[in-house]
Amino acid sequence: MSELDVHLAAGKPAVLRVDGASEAATWVAEHRDQLRSLVDQHGALLVRGLPLADAAEFGRVARDLAAPLLPEREAFARRWTYEDGIYSSSKWPPNQPMCMHHELSYTLEFPGLMVFACLGAPTSGGVTGVADAAAVLDALPADLVERFEREGWQLVRNYNEMVGVPWQEAFGTEDRGEVERYCRDNSIEFEWDEMDGLRTKQRRSAIITHPKTGARVWFNQVAFLNEWTIDPEVRDYLLMEFGPDGLPFNSRYGSGAPIGDDVIALLNKVYEEHTRREPWQTGDLMLVDNIAQAHSREPYEGAREVLVAMGEPVRLADCSPTVSSF
């Protein structure tokens, strides 16, 4: 089998151009080992030129590359489900960015590989950027790293019909007892309110070790699931209506102390300095090592249809966590 020709350019992810493939799933199956090797080498790989046109074919590609696929749990935004393990990208306002993050980094088991497919490119924007998590960690101030290494980070969430995602949707059940069992099994503190709303709290390591490479990486969603990333007008309204403890999500230091907007601004600045981006084209396939690389979604205009699958589950316990969970 011939070597695949990968194009490398400053400020862009590795791009592999495919010519003459008559069927995407067949081509991917034939080149699976090479593709996985390229992801290991570069952290993220954009495959361009495949005749990838619908969710069913993307499902075959994703299962071949990343099985077993993970179901959505503890969702912070709505997705559409195409089939088991195949979802739309998170439904987030098009004019607002989804800041850099590692998918499901607040769970005890998260995807090792993210698989994206663009079935419809937007008119402008909408890039899925990537950033090297080891380089980001190295660029952060030593005192901030030491604090997060010592304390970890804490995610506080409120699930109800008025803010955020309802708990029934986030946990995939109408049974409060099943939600409680899930929370206990996954080191999540929980409490119900008188309106059938759910409030949860979980502490996780902010810095972990990649189980394959041994690299220490900045691995969390502190810069995204934070009060300072909410649109200011929306944030002011939510604070007025629900108070500081009623926001749909907020990240804190592991001790529970608030994280200032200056820290979030610093994290986003460092992320931006390490972001690599390439505009989507219809038919693109993108593979992202979810531990080695953070990813984002930039604001966009026009219709955008990007599908996602989350596979190759990895347990936090196998990544040398620096703090114990609740």
From TrEMBL:
The answer to whether UniProt assigns keyword Oxidoreductase to this entry is: yes
**Gene Ontology MF: a single term:** dioxygenase activity
For the biological process aspect of GO, one term held by this record is: antibiotic biosynthetic process
List cofactor names only: Fe(2+)
Positions of the TauD/TfdA-like domain? 27-309
Instruction: Give one Pfam family.
Output: TauD
Keyword vocabulary terms for this entry: Antibiotic biosynthesis, Dioxygenase, Iron, Oxidoreductase
Q: Does the keyword Nucleotide-binding apply?
A: no
InterPro entries (alphabetical): AlphaKG_dependent_hydroxylases (IPR050411), TauD-like_sf (IPR042098), TauD/TfdA-like (IPR003819)
- Domain of life the protein comes from: Bacteria
By its UniProt entry, which PANTHER family does this protein fall under?
A: GAMMA-BUTYROBETAINE HYDROXYLASE-RELATED, TAUD_TFDA-LIKE DOMAIN-CONTAINING PROTEIN
Protein name listed in UniProt: TauD/TfdA family dioxygenase
Name the species this protein comes from.
Saccharopolyspora hirsuta
